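Write out the 3D structure for:
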Amino acid sequence: MELDTLKDLYVDELKDLYSAEKQLVKGLAKMAKAATDPQLKDAFRTHLDETRQHVERLEQICGDLGVSPRGKKCVGMEGLIEEGNELIKDDPDPDVLDAGLISKAQHIEHYEMAGYGTVRTYARQLGFDNHAELLQQTLDDEGKTDHLLTELAEAGINVEAEV
């Protein structure tokens, strides 16, 4: 795909986010299965449901633009998920695993927030206000998940991992 205009870049970034979210659906399922803390398991499962909605929003936006969301592989998300898989394979103490999963998940959330903030800004610039609203909803979901993970870490998971 040639990137000659901001709209071209917007579409390219949407496809990258779509790939990221599709990969994350699988990654979050693994993280939820590996987590030992019940609240952390629930947080991952809840965000998995939200991530499926994020995929649907991206499909809606791409449909509105008349383009397929497929066709690009997000290597950034691939690497972040692989880091989580490596942590799980290392088989650390369960409390340390939970603390590590929070860390890996927050890396993912921050990566997504950067991407969604960018495409939301592009959507506004290009006059796609309805897209910008959908993208902001996803950005809000990502921020809430990040804050929840911080709360879980600080309220006990990191303390348990320290002992």
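The helical segments are 6-34, 38-65, 75-90, 94-125, 129-162.
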